[in-house]
Amino acid sequence: MGCPNARLEASDNRIKVTIRTAYGFHHANNIIALIMLRCGGLDIHLPQPRT
User: Fold this and answer.
1) Could you say which DSSP state residue 31 is in?
2) What is the dihedral of CA 8, 35, 17, 24, to 10 degrees?
């Protein structure tokens, strides 16, 4: 039948928080890229410093 309401509300909230975080961006393409990065489901592992 479609997505449950809770799942849609969660993704909508994540997009709103991302837009609020990206308030100072000069170009809309940067905001769109940040939304795609946060909501796209990629699992990015940052390099850890060697100790």
Assistant:
1) H
2) -160
Closest residue by Cα to residue 35 from 49, 47, 21, 50: 21
The type of residue at 41 is G
C-alpha–C-alpha distance, residues 48 and 51, integer Å: 9
**In which residue are the tokens 């489901």 written?**
41
Token duo for residue 2:
């479609």
| pLDDT tens-digit readout, 11-47 | 899 999 998 988 888 999 999 999 888 888 777 788 8
Question: Can you state the angle between helices 28-39 and 5-21, rounded to 10 degrees?
Answer: 140
* Entry pTM: 0.65
